[in-house]
Amino acid sequence: MGKNIVQKILDGHIVDGKPEKGSAVGIRIDQTLTQDATGTMAYLQFEALGFDRVKTELSVSYVDHNTIQEGFENADDHKYLETVAAKYGILFSKPGNGICHQVHVERFGKPGKTLLGSDSHTPTGGGIGMVAIGAGGLDVAVAMGGGPFYLTYPEVVKVELAGTLRPWVSAKDVVLALLEIMGTKGNAGSMVEYGGPGVDALSVPERATITNMGAELGVITSVFPSDEKTRLFLRAQGREEGYAELSADSDALYDRVIKIDLSALEPRAACPHSPGNVKKLSELKGIKVDQALVGSCTNASYRDIMLTAAMLKGKKVNPNVSLGVACGSRQVLEMVSRNGALAEIISSGARILETACGFCIGNSVAPRTDAVSVRTSNRNFFGRSGTSSAQVYLSSPEAAVAAALSGELCDPVEYFKNEQYPQITAPDNFIIDDSMILKPAADPSKVEIFRGPNIGAPPSNEACPDVIDGCVAIKVGDKITTDHIMPAGSRLKYRSNIQKYAEFVFEREDPEFSKRALDNKGKGIRNIIVGGESYGQGSSREHAAICPMYLGVKMVITISMERIHRANLVNFGIIPATFVNAGDYAKLGKDDMLTIGDVRRSIQTGAELTAVRKGDGLQVRLNVELTEREKGMVLAGSLINQCREG
């Protein structure tokens, strides 16, 4: 029986386990990436594990998140990252060089390779034919040290594309249509593979847009074939030697097949406050818009920016709208500066934003109170824009520019119906200037790592107790994201300072949570979090596990939990439990005191746990499904503890 693309790449990288659906396997990681918001802790953990050099083919440390906040913290963290990279054999991409995912596709991605990144949108690399997976920083640290990355051997969903996109319909509309079909939950054990004749009509940047926002499906990753389009892209980047053809065998099998006719798609938008809340733009016509933003790792490629410039040429932005445009890489910014496209954007009245994550993570260009903001980024979670009352819609560059010009949400097919769709030709040669990517030191012994006052050691956790006497310190609902647990924006500068950052855990849900949890911890009471369905959506930020662990959280009980966050909880010794009976979620409340006995033996044997509520004796049955490797981590109190013990 033939193999699909996912199987070909994974099977060639398995170092532990067997390629059997649903079983745990460890795979060799060829490349890693980090960004500055997650990288500081990843490298602190790399040091704590005692590694003296990276053992991957390539590891890159990017600075693209915390680039504009006031104070010394970000600059200090960046210097730490620069010196750590120099000492341990890591490339360092300086602030201003671009967003990690776009730069990595442009300058480093290779078909058939594995990539592990401490950012949930690492699957962008699937657009160039990689199995690219987002994970917590501790998993990335282990991979940099030569250890395998563990995952469940996946089911593979084939998305078969046919036809060609019509003018004013975008690759963004492809993934929005898929989000309509698959939703944002229940896909944690799957990978998506694209195929069919429609693939040939999509460029590498368009494919990368689709795999990037595929992260919102909750799948492990998404991947495209590597074909002639891939080869031409690599050649234009001066990297054709990295090309390898990669396609599924004709008799490959899939667990599910979804068919999408590109020629039949209509422009769409994700409505507040979820990437899965998708509607056709024709249904949203007339909603007044205050802000439009083009950029982010989803839609800031050369093609996206050139298209934006062409749509704006000779026009002025609606006086009631603020339009901002951010290139995804320095390469793109330089090219559009030299060819005149940037001048067209400036002439329209748009603001030119920094080549960084910026508005996507809420650290700049926050909209006004109650504003409607149309963005080409990948997430519109409540409050993520920096303004809790704002209504954020996610769309293609075509739709964002149409909104900026018209002053309202509209279908770009209808708005631009009397105009010729711009034909953007990919350059034969991109401008190649890697001077802002610093190489490691020739003599690591001469490198002194800079550690500012914001840098602290990773906090330690206790070994798993046999009895948990705990308090439900907070109860939250469905689709709680890591943004709900650990806010981004201006709080990101404390990522290296867990004691400080922990003050903001669940601050939007319950501003008193951190203080209450610390009070419980001081009294010897272990904290428990109760959540609903699809708990832990969104970012890979492991701080959503580290900071609760620091606050004394020992168990998270939910109806269901998303993959990366669950893995991060296990890494830091927090027990990821689910209700045996989902109806029991309604029976538990904040401040309930629970006793859970025989914890260690139950984890070792895989038996159910029983939580007994003090006062009325209510019993709630819990599942804790862990692999043998994960059992060892939870029992030891964390992966770092386990490594130190073994």
Detailed description of the structure:
The chain has 646 residues and is an alpha/beta fold. Helix content is 28%, strand content 18%. It contains 21 helices and 27 strands. Strands 21-22-23-24-27-26-25 form a 7-stranded mixed beta barrel, surrounded by 4 helices. A 6-stranded mixed sheet has the order 7-6-3-4-5-20. Helix 9 (302-312) packs across helix 11. The protein is globular, with a radius of gyration of 24 Å. The two termini are 40 Å apart. The model has no long low-confidence stretch (mean pLDDT 95).
How would you summarize what this structure contains?
The protein is 28% helix and 18% strand. The protein has 646 residues and is α/β, with parallel strands linked by helices. The model has no long low-confidence stretch (mean pLDDT 95).
Q: What secondary-structure arrangement, pairings included, does this model have?
A:
Blueprint: H1 5-11, E1 14-16, E2 24-27, E3 31-35, H2 36-48, E4 58-62, H3 73-88, E5 91-93, H4 100-107, E6 114-117, E7 131-134, H5 137-144, E8 149-152, E9 155-162, H6 171-182, E10 190-195, H7 204-213, E11 221-223, H8 228-236, E12 256-261, E13 268-270, E14 278-280, E15 291-294, H9 302-312, E16 322-325, H10 330-338, H11 341-347, E17 351-352, E18 372-375, E19 391-394, H12 397-406, H13 412-415, E20 437-438, E21 468-475, H14 482-485, H15 498-501, H16 513-522, E22 526-530, H17 543-550, E23 553-558, H18 563-571, E24 575-579, E25 593-596, H19 599-605, E26 609-613, E27 619-623, H20 628-636, H21 639-645
Parallel strand pairs: 3-4, 3-6, 4-5, 6-7, 9-10, 9-12, 10-11, 15-16, 15-18, 16-17, 18-19, 21-22, 22-23, 23-24
Antiparallel strand pairs: 1-2, 2-8, 5-20, 13-14, 21-25, 24-27, 25-26, 26-27
